[in-house]
Amino acid sequence: MYVMISKYLAPVDEVDKVREEHLAFLDGLIQRGKLVIAGRQDPPVGGLVMIEADTEAEARELMADDPYIKQGVAEYTATGFRPSLGRLA
Description:
Layout: E1 2-8, H1 12-16, H2 19-31, E2 35-40, E3 47-51, H3 56-63, H4 67-70, E4 74-80
Antiparallel strand pairs: 1-3, 1-4, 2-3
Pfam families: YCII
Family: Belongs to the YciI family.
InterPro entries: Dimeric_a/b-barrel, YCII
């Protein structure tokens, strides 16, 4: 599993112009059984997308078509994650 933490590279109003496309992209990850959870940070300086992926390369490949990346309004940091306690364990 990978946690993809985004950092906005543009003001929030510019990010919001791409938000509907981004949410549709995330819905596609849900349909493929890859999305665990996603949401915007508070304050809105980026977001978090947790996905089912075995490697960082797979995680980045899954996220490559994200409109936020394609439009250049955000970038992602990938962090591997293995739940050991709680609902996801």
